[in-house]
């Protein structure tokens, strides 16, 4: 049976139990620590393999797109500093369905991030010490071996948990010194690689040797978006910063530009330092870099290939950093994921117990659950390269909401204090939305179909749990309809043959793509229509205001299949990208028009107005005493 109204009102007061103690430097370093994690160890190799020397342009393009994506979040984050912020704003402006789909996309990406950082540590260590038997090869990809590699990864996950369990102060203080190390080592690596720089790698094999489209696809698939989207860490911890009006905007832009400069320098130096013979591949065969001898430790191998003793010696330091950098990012990501689960619980998507905090002010139940689910990503054959593209697409998909939420908040929450106000939102908001949609599209069909299968499977949770939880549909109706839908969705996804596929071909005996695409789209549309018809007035409102997002996902999938990054490639670059931009613009304006003042929005605004007033009142006596 649905719970009583007093039981289902979101507990916005839970934010007061978190401690606002983090300074600008602390939150900036937390975000930078996420940016300079496993990505800096592998992204330069994968970017070069995808785009050749033009990977430099891919980094510039990726950095520019991420900045545009972040602009709307800077205003929203400063105005509504909330832990787990990215999963909470969509609910406030668009209701239950949008909030759940975006929240799940962001949560599933975040919960896998500590695992991928642990995988990166073990991968580097396994290449340096093969006798430990921590790595093996499956389908031409380096994966963690059982038992040595997987057990070592699980041990790292336990370490990440312990760092977080003792409070945000320990987390931020521990991370401060680690982040200085994580900045110093990449910069030093860049300088040392210049001693073996070979300009022929830029001139002899063609700057755009992999094609113009590869410059764009590398942003999504080579780890560039994976590394640069960690600006969201500022927002995930925003409920615990001491001065949000200054900390959030400065922290957001700073944690993008500083790592971008480091990555750009590394990419320039790494391309020039490639020793084709040592890598074991033909000179100029950029696409073979990923599977080369350098695949498990590219920067370390680049230094060791030199005849200079000093460079080889620094490779040992680099090996130490292969433990420290991903390890530090891993415990930051676990802490951020706990805040995401906390935010989802506020609006009823996760049980209320996820809001429980320990004596250190940490949402410990959410963190324990995130830790346990994250450990599942070590089965059956964990690999950095296989996870990076999926995580990037899921994160970027959820971050497109900032551009849609901002104009809705401007309209329905004019009294909200705005320490930072974005100028020309009529231009920057759709631009940010298109930037996010483009990166998601460039992820490629195989990544998108896996992400879509998971998101639309999670749609059943909305009908079976959330709508009955809020009393907007009977429990029996919601569970029955959702169970039928989920069973049908699993069957259709299996017959489609693309779920968990890693190549450009479906499983043998699968449906032709037109059949799979049509049946899956009709199934999702029928389920959404059923929820709308069988729900009460509020259920219909919250469900219908998320249809624009369902449209975007369903329309993107066939475009991706026939586009320049799909298995068929009926359209050459940039035709498919331009068509996707057209679809995205329709979705953007539909999404803005779908925004409304949810019941919780006035209360949230009132709490923020009161909090700002209290801070100003507390500042006045201090100022008077100073005089």
Walkthrough of the structure:
This protein is an all-alpha fold. The protein folds into 2 domains: 5-443, Amino acid/polyamine transporter I, CATH 1.20.1740.10; 444-596, no CATH class. Helix content is 70%, strand content 1%. It contains 27 helices and 2 strands. It has helices spanning 5-8, 24-35, 39-51, 55-79, 89-94, 96-128, 148-165, 168-193, 200-203, 212-221, 224-228, 232-236, 244-273, 276-279, 298-304, 309-346, 364-375, 384-399, 401-412, 425-442, 445-469, 475-496, 513-534, 537-544, 547-562, 575-594, 600-626; strands at 135-138, 141-144. A two-stranded antiparallel sheet has the order 1-2. Helix 4 runs antiparallel to helix 13 (244-273). The longest helix has 38 residues, at 309-346. The protein starts with a helix and ends with a helix. 55% of the residues are buried.
Shape: globular
- What do the pLDDT scores average to? 83
Low-confidence stretches: 1-18
Integer-rounded radius of gyration: 24 Å
Strand order of the largest sheet: 1-2
Q: Helix proportion of residues, in percent?
A: 55-70%
CATH topology-level name of the largest domain = Amino acid/polyamine transporter I
Q: Report the structural category.
A: mainly alpha
Strand percentage: under 5%
End-to-end Cα distance: 61 Å
Instruction: Please give the largest β-sheet.
Output: 2 strands, antiparallel
What's the CATH C level of the largest domain? Answer: Mainly Alpha
Count up the helices: 27
CATH H level, superfamily name of the largest domain: Amino acid/polyamine transporter I
Order of helices and strands: HHHHHHEEHHHHHHHHHHHHHHHHHHHHH
Give the name of the CATH architecture of the largest domain: Up-down Bundle
């Amino acid at each position: 049976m649905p719970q009583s109204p007093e039981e289902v009102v979101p507990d916005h007061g839970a934010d007061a139990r978190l401690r606002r103690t983090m300074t600008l430097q602390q939150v900036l370093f937390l975000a930078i620590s996420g940016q300079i994690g496993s990505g800096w160890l592998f992204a330069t190799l994968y970017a070069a393999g995808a785009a050749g020397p033009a990977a430099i342009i891919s980094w510039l393009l990726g950095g520019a797109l991420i900045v545009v994506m972040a602009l709307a979040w800077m205003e929203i984050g400063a105005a509504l500093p909330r832990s787990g912020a990215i999963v909470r704003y969509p609910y406030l402006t668009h209701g239950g369905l949008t909030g759940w789909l975006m929240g799940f996309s962001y949560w599933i990406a975040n919960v896998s991030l500590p695992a991928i950082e642990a995988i990166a540590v073990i991968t580097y260590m396994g290449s340096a010490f093969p006798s430990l038997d921590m790595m093996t090869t499956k389908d031409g990809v380096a994966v963690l071996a059982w038992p040595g590699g997987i057990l070592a990864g699980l041990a790292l996950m336990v370490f990440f948990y312990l760092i977080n369990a003792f409070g945000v102060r320990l987390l931020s203080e521990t991370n401060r010194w680690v982040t200085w190390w994580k900045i110093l080592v990449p910069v030093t690596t860049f300088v040392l690689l210049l001693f073996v720089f070979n300009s022929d790698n830029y001139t002899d094999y063609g700057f755009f040797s992999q094609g113009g489209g590869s410059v764009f696809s590398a942003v999504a698939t080579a780890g560039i978006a994976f590394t640069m989207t960690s600006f969201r860490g500022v927002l995930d911890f925003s409920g615990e910063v001491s001065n949000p009006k200054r900390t959030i905007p400065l922290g957001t832009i700073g944690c993008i530009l500083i790592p971008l400069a480091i990555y750009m320098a590394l990419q320039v130096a790494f391309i020039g330092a490639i020793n084709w013979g040592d890598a074991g591949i033909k000179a100029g065969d950029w696409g073979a870099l990923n599977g080369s001898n350098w695949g498990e430790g590219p920067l370390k191998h680049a230094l060791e290939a030199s005849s200079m003793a000093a460079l080889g010696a620094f490779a040992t330091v680099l090996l130490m950093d292969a433990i420290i950098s991903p390890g530090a990012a891993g415990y930051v990501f676990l802490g951020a994921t706990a805040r995401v689960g906390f935010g989802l619980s506020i609006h009823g998507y996760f049980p209320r117990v996820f809001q429980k905090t320990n004596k250190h002010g940490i949402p410990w139940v959410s963190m324990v659950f995130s830790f346990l689910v994250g450990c599942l990503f070590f089965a059956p054959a964990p690999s950095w390269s296989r996870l990076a593209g999926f995580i990037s697409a899921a994160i970027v998909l959820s971050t497109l909401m900032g551009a849609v939420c901002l104009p809705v908040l401007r309209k329905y929450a004019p009294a909200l204090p705005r320490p930072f106000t974005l100028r020309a939102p009529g231009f920057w908001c759709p631009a940010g939305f298109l930037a996010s949609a483009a990166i998601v599209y460039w992820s490629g069909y195989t990544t998108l179909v896996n992400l879509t299968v998971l998101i639309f499977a999670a749609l059943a949770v909305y009908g079976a749990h959330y709508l009955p939880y809020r009393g907007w549909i009977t429990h029996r109706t919601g569970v029955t309809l959702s169970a039928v839908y989920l069973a049908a969705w699993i069957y259709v996804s299996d017959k489609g043959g693309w779920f968990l596929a890693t190549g450009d071909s479906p499983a043998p005996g699968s449906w032709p793509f037109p059949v799979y695409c049509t049946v899956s789209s009709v199934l999702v549309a029928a389920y959404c229509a059923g929820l709308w018809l069988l729900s009460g007035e509020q259920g219909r409102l919250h469900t219908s205001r998320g249809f624009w997002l369902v449209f975007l996902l369903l329309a993107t999938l066939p475009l991706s299949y026939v586009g320049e990054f799909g298995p068929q490639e009926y359209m050459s670059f940039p035709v498919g990208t331009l068509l996707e931009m057209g679809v995205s613009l329709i979705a953007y304006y539909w999404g803005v028009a779908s925004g409304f003042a949810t019941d919780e929005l006035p209360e949230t605004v009132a709490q923020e107005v009161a909090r700002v007033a209290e801070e100003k009142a507390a500042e006045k006596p201090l100022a008077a005493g100073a005089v």
